[in-house]
Amino acid sequence: MTSMASVFNVDGKSVSIGGPPSTLKALFSECEFFKHTKNVPMRKVQGFWHTARAYGTEHVQQIVPKIDEGHQMHLPLFSPVTGTAFELTDATTLLKGIMEEMLTQRIHWDLTVKGVTDWLRQHSQDSIELISIQPSHYLESLLEHWRSELPNSIPSSQDMMSAVVSLPLGISRPRDPQSSKLAVVGMACRFPGGADTTEKFWELLAQAKDAHTRVPSDRFNAESHVDPTGKKHNTSKTPYGCFVDNPGAFDATFFGMSPREAEQTDPMHRLALVTAYEALEHAGYVRGRGIHARRVGTFYGQASDDYREVNSGQEISTYFIPGGCRAFAPGRINYFFKFWGPSFSVDTACSSSLAAIQTACSSLWSGDVDMAITGGLNIITNSDVYAGLSNGHFLSPTGNCKTWDEGANGYCRSDGKPDQLVKGRMRDLAGCAHPGRFSGFCVRTVSNKIVSSILA
Asked: Which of 55, 114, 235, 308 has its CA at a distance of 20 to 30 angstroms from the CA of residue 286?
């Protein structure tokens, strides 16, 4: 059903139609009726709202939490469906009503305009200021309507997006040792041994589990690319490594990516979006609160382009470069989350992730950014890199690493996708009345076990 177009707004003069871009393109280019209509493209919306085709009341029950009854509504809130003000009720019921309309019911802009205009007329306002989230083609028509219907009032408008962008950002430079301290406020990961959360990773470390296995068949055929004798060309002497589970699991629609682009995008680039989202969610990050998008940067370490190299002799198409070159991985995160800060891809071989974290910390200390998303990317898919490392005597032919042991004979390759959300100015936390929250972030304690152990 989500592949279909749907009318989500009517106002007596026009209708608004939403759906996948390919469906809308076909609708307006192939349907005889729509070929001859005037249409205005709208901003891209990540989701399928205001139609009963995708969601129902059961979904509302799942996502709306119970809210403290002490909350009260102090201003009239008008329904975009009925055009009337919501009844005064408890916060939970009100939020359920709002979410049900948002997910399942069609907007009636004409009724909304009439309801708000009638309310303004009853209260005889000398001036009216219309504050919108972002610019819209509806604004001027609404202002013209009020100038006509409310001649005794002077209407004006301001969009919040332009107001925020025009604010002076200032410079955040460390002035004393306290302001130079940094805080890890969010974490996420994908590690071998089923460690797809920081809690599971901690358990893996605490139990000292060995996660090395034979190369899975979804990476490359170990039987044809491994020769313990080392006599065959382009083969590795070891079939062992450490691998994350389900590296290709990715919700392309959620991240606004077409199936074709997703297929041609390196799995580690796709996972970078997922774990960055999880780290931001773990930190309690809310866009527009606490830190401006201009002040957020991404810093990732990546030492190989396995997926691009494997596919270099295959179909080279539109997304071959942005989907495979390592420079695009952190940039993709900035693009999706609309961060304006620097985007660094760091390659210092085995120390790439640590070098990326150091670069992120330096950027925070210098005042270039107020928050950094940093970590590393590695998903093994290329047998040639295995062969090269093995023939160069880097890899252990027996599997796991034996660091500092007299039997040490090389290391074991591993997947990995760690993310940390690092924020400057620890004094913001020290002076906060709520010890678990500061500047729009919620600091979780479970993952602090890992951080505390490292710093101990």
From this structure: 55
